[in-house]
C-alpha cells in the first residue's frame, strides 16, 4: 500500500514537471502592434522576437537627406566611451543630452506607437517611450 502511494506521488510529480517545462505556444511572438511608414503594420522582420523592440525601417541615406533638408546636420558625435553604450536593448545612458527633433522632420519618419525619436549627438535613436530602452540606432545621421 505504501509503495503504491509513493509511485502515484512520483507519477503526479513527473506529470507536473513535464507540463511546466513546455514553453507557451506564442513564445517569441510580439504582442504589440506597430505601424509602418505606409500606415500598415510593421512586419515580423521589423520586430525583435526576443525583446519585442521595433527596428528602424527608414534607411540611413533617407534620414541623412532629411536632416540636411531641415538643417540638422553638423552635430558633434558623442564621446566614444558613451557612444558605445548606445546599443539596442540597453537603456539610454545617463547624462546623454538627448534632443527632441523638429515636428516637420518627425513627420517624415515612420511612426511606431509607444516609441519616440530622439537625437543623441550625431545619432538618430528610437526609444521605447515608457522605459527609455533603445530600440534601434542610426549612426552619424546628423554629422
Mean pLDDT: 75
Rg, Cα atoms, Å? 23 Å
Q: Which structural class is indicated by helix and strand composition? A: alpha+beta
Count of separate DSSP helical elements: 4
Low-confidence stretches: 17-50
Strands side by side in the biggest sheet: 1-2-3-4
Which term fits the overall shape?
elongated
Count of individual beta strands: 4
Biggest sheet record: 4 strands, antiparallel
The separation of the N and C termini measures: 80 Å
Helix share, percent: 25-40%
* Content of β-strand: 5-15%
Order of helices and strands: HHHEHEEE
Describe the structure.
With 143 residues, the chain is an alpha+beta fold. The protein has helices spanning 2-21, 60-69, 80-83, 103-107, and strands spanning 98-99, 115-120, 123-128, 134-138. Strands 1-2-3-4 form a four-stranded antiparallel β-sheet, with no helix packed on it. The longest helix has 20 residues, at 2-21.
Topology record:
Blueprint lengths: L1 H20 L38 H10 L10 H4 L14 E2 L3 H5 L7 E6 L2 E6 L5 E5 L5
Give a brief description.
With 143 residues, this protein is of the alpha+beta class.
Question: Main traits of this protein?
Answer:
single chain; 143 residues; 4 strands; alpha+beta; four-stranded antiparallel β-sheet
Amino acid at each position: 500500500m505504501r509503495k503504491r502511494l509513493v509511485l502515484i506521488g512520483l507519477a503526479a510529480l513527473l506529470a507536473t514537471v513535464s507540463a511546466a517545462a513546455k514553453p507557451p505556444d506564442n513564445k517569441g511572438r510580439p504582442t504589440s502592434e506597430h505601424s509602418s511608414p505606409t500606415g500598415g503594420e510593421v512586419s515580423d522582420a521589423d520586430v525583435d522576437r526576443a525583446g519585442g523592440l521595433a527596428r528602424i525601417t527608414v534607411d540611413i541615406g533617407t534620414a541623412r537627406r532629411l536632416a540636411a533638408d531641415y538643417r540638422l546636420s553638423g552635430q558633434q558625435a558623442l564621446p566614444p566611451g558613451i557612444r558605445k553604450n548606445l546599443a539596442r536593448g540597453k537603456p539610454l545612458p545617463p547624462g546623454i543630452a538627448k534632443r527632441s527633433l523638429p515636428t516637420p522632420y518627425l513627420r517624415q519618419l515612420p511612426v511606431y506607437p509607444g516609441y519616440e525619436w530622439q537625437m543623441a549627438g550625431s545619432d538618430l535613436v528610437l526609444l521605447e517611450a515608457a522605459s527609455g530602452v533603445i530600440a534601434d540606432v542610426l549612426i552619424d545621421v546628423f554629422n
